[in-house]
Every structure is written in structure tokens, then in C-alpha cells.
Amino acid sequence: MSGIAMPHRALLALAAILPLAACGGGGATAQNDAAAQEAPGNAIARIQTLNEGERNATLFRAIRDANRDCQGVVRSVATDPIQGKPAWIATCDNGGEWLVAIGADGTALVTNGRP
After folding, report:
1. The pLDDT value given to residue 29
2. pLDDT tens digits for 41-57?
3. How far apart are CA 100 and CA 8, in angstroms?
4. Around Cβ 4, how many Cβ atoms within 10 Å?
5. Cβ distance 102 to 85 under 8 Å?
6. Main-chain dihedrals φ then ψ at residue 31, nearest 5 degrees
7. Prediction pTM value
8. Of 11, 50, 105, 114, whose CB has the highest number of CB atoms within 10 Å?
């Protein structure tokens, strides 16, 4: 893990992503539901179909599950993959930034700032 200091892993169950997506402002669409059904257990496909509000809610949950300081994610932007996993920079309401990489099994790697 060159360049990443002391990551903390959190488990993001696909079942947890679905209810959070509905809270993200707009709810899950038929397209999102179809994507989840086409790729059961594939958290990457599921999170990539979310709009920014839904994705922010999902990344917030991963950050909080990793016991990181964040009261809400106000912005998330895709960044270069980490260890082959899609990754996002999540900006919290307190200005803190967390790098969150998510594996196909829903395991999230949460670490400080930018890669």
C-alpha cells in the first residue's frame, strides 16, 4: 500500500447501500434497481449507479463505520483507483477529506485525504 498510511477497513454491506440511497434526495430509480438486480453482491456496480446525494450518504456510512470524524458528506468526487478498487474523495461538512475505495464485496478502505 505505498502512499497510503494506516488505512482502516470498514464493511459496507450491499443491503446497507440500498436504504441509504433512498435517503439521498430522489430515491433509487428503476435503472438503479435494475443494475442492483443484474449484479447481486457487486457493490461497485451499485454505487456507480447512484447520484451524488445517494453516493454521499453511502460514503458517509463507510466513513462513520471506520470511526472517522464526519457528520455528513457534502461532496464526493471520483479519483484514481486504489489497489484496483474504484475510489472517491469525500468532503465532510467540517472540511475534512477522506479517501474511500470500495471493493466488489462491499469492503471499504477509508484513509486520510488524497492519494
Report:
1. 39
2. 588 888 888 999 999 99
3. 10
4. 15
5. yes
6. -65, -45
7. 0.66
8. 50
Place of cell 446525494: 53
**Closest by alpha carbon to 19, among 38, 33, 2, 35?**
33
Q: What is the pLDDT of residues 79-110, one digit of tens each?
A: 999 988 999 999 999 999 999 999 988 899 99
Q: How far apart are CA 13 and CA 16, in angstroms?
A: 5
Residues 6+ apart with CB under 8 A from 114: 79, 89, 97, 99
The CB-side HSE value for 72 (13 A sphere, CA atoms) comes to 6
Helix extents (H) in the chain: 14-22, 30-38, 43-48, 52-65
Q: Is 21 helix (H, G, I), strand (E, B) or coil?
A: helix
